[in-house]
Structure formats: structure tokens, C-alpha cells
Amino acid sequence: MTLSAHELVDRLQNTSGFKILYTYISMALSKVLMEKLFTYDSLVHAVSGAVGASVAMSVLYPLDTIRSRLQIEEGDVSKSTADMFQQIMDEEGVQGLYRGLTPVLQSLICSNFVYFYSFHGLRAVFNMNNSAGRDLALAAVAGTINVLATTPMWVVNTRMKVNGARHGPRNLRCDYRSIWEGLVDIARNEGLSALWSSTLPSLILVSNPSIQFMVYEALKRRCVYLRIPLSSGTVFTIGAVSKCVATVLTYPIQLAQSKMRYSNDNRTMISVLIYVARNFGVAGLFKGLESKLLQTVSTTALMFMVYEKIAEIVFALLKAEGELQRAKK
Fold first, then answer.
1. Is residue 198 one of the residues assigned to a domain?
2. Residues 66 and 81 sit within 8 Å (Cβ to Cβ)
3. For the chain, how many helices (H) and strands (E)?
4. CA distances from 176 to 180, 185, 296 (A)
5. Is 27 inside any structural domain?
6. Which domain holds residue 255?
């Protein structure tokens, strides 16, 4: 009797030998995967990225507050960064510039830890050689994981940060005392879907850090090729350039993201962009770009500088410890 290919596969799958072999191979692959994914290298990169981002945001947070206010306010008069700074100072004082800093830092640490760990963990698992294309693909996957995991935290953060804005889509008083309180309140009063209200633009904006990381890694490799020392100044510069390119290319989507996070009125990203373009012109799609560039370029450049230094120091310490252990043997 001649067996078809499907029948042969079915019989093989039902044999105990095949099951044992399949189990053994699965366990071996899982062990290899875990050994590559959960490594000191990935952990060092994740912690370094999280610390670097929190340091940079702490220094430049007022610019992020101004950028958020400019993006969600819809008054007829278009304000500059300086105008918004003066308005916040006059109406709310210095504390208005730092409103929501603590939850933002908490979210930023979680977000950057997830992103850097995912990126370097995936690179180790797939054993990829460094190249712009591969870095772009890995950054996109890492960014998607980050968005799905941390979007609810950023929805709460946006509302806390812009609490008190005069010309927003609605006058919310989002005076949450913590991220957890905000998560519970939004889920209870608006539904769980409201916590992921900006997921689509956030997923599209995965291209922002992907473009940024691709440009950053490409410029860093170019510096190595040209034998330019990766000093703090050099890393700061290439970090600034990479973020500037990514920000300009994706800014209208960022603006739609902020509006959707602040006002959960079931508008789609496309409808938000059309609304802004019709009522405020093409320039309205880039409202707040000046403060965004000042904030995000400086923050990213400083973050990468701190990240590289921390990673360099930790890896040097681990190497020294390893050499000491070998010397004792």
C-alpha cells in the first residue's frame, strides 16, 4: 500500500520515537533561544538605554511639556515655543513646566528598557551581522513590542502633562496622582479600548525610532570606518542628526497621536489629520515642530551619549572581572 505524503507525516507524528525527538529538539532550541535572549549583554544595553533616556528627559522636560501643549491646543492664534513657555509660566509657574515628570520618567524607563532589550536580544537570537537594513528590521520589531506593551502608560502621561491646557478638544482635568490611578480611571469610565486609543499612529511611529536607530548605527559605523573616535561629542552629534531626520519625516503622525491620546472621541488617525489640515492648513500639521525638534533632538543626543558611556563602563568592568577570575584559576 502506497502512503501519501500527508499520511506518512501523520504516522510519523504519532510514533513515540518522533515525539521524543520532537520534544528533544524543541527543548534544545528553547534552551539556545533563552541563552541568547537572556544575556548580560542585552540586560546592560537595556539598563543603559533606560538610564540614558531618564537622565536626558529630566534635563529637558520643560521642552516636552511645551511641545505637548502646542500639539493639543486648537486656538486660532498659533503660538511659538517662547509664547507657550511664557503662558505656562504666567498661569501655572515653574511647576507647570514639570507637570507629570515622575510618571513620564517611570514610563520612559519601562519603555526604553523594553525597546533596548528587545533590539539587542533579537540581534543575539538571530545572530545578525550589523547593517543598516537589519538594524531597521530589528528596530521595527522592537518598537512594535514596545508600543503594544506601554501605550496605556503614555495615554495617561499625555493627559497628566497637558492638564490645564485652555484650548484642547475638551477641558479635561486629568489630575491623577499616579499612572495606576489614571489607568484604572480611564478603563472604568471610558473602557479598556481608550487605553490603546493611539495604538495605530504609535505603531506607524515605530518607523521613527527605526529610522533614527538605522541612521545612528550607519553614522556610527561610518565613524569607525573613518577612524573617528566615538567621543561624547561625536555620539551627541550623530544622535542629534539621526533624531532630527526621523522627527521631521514623522511629525504629522506624532501630532495626531497626541490629539488621540488626549481626546478619546473615536476619531481615526486619518480623520484627525484631515481635520487639522482643513482647519489650520498644512502648517497646522507641523504645529509645535520647533519645540519638538529642540526637545527630542537634544534629549535623544544626550540619551545616546549617556547610554554609550554607561554600556562602555559596565562592559569594561565585566571584562576586568572575567580576566580576574581567569587569573585566579
1. yes
2. yes
3. 13, 0
4. 9, 9, 25
5. no
6. 39-70+78-324
Of the candidates 235, 246, 236, 232, which has an alpha carbon nearest to the alpha carbon of residue 293?
246
The cell numbers describing 44, all together, are: 546592560
- Number of folded domains in the chain? 1
Domain assignment present for 11: no
Query: Pick from 255, 245, 301, 296: which is nearest to 275 by CA?
Result: 255
For 317, the grid coordinates are 568592568
Q: Which amino acid is at 14?
A: N
Contact assessment for residue 278 and residue 262, using Cβ atoms and an 8 Å cutoff: no
Backbone angles phi, psi at 165, to 5 degrees: -65, 135
- CATH assignment at residue 229: 1.50.40.10
DSSP characters for 101-129? HHHHHHHHHHHHHHHHHHHHHHHHHHTPP
CA 138, 139, 140, 144 dihedral sign is: positive
User: What is the mean pLDDT for each group of 10 consecutive residues in the chain (329 residues)?
Assistant: 49 50 45 54 74 80 83 67 86 84 86 82 71 76 87 84 56 70 85 81 80 84 88 83 85 85 74 88 84 78 79 75 67
Centre a 10 Å sphere on the Cβ of residue 144 and count the other Cβ atoms it contains.
15
Query: Is residue 19 included in any domain, yes or no?
Result: no
Asked if 72 and 291 touch (Cβ cutoff 8 Å), the reply is no
Task: Tell me the backbone φ, ψ of residue 227, rounded to 5 degrees.
Answer: 60, 35
Residues in Cβ contact with 321 at an 8 Å cutoff, skipping those fewer than 6 apart: none
Q: Which residues contact 172 (CB under 8 A, 6 or more apart)?
A: 159, 163, 262, 263
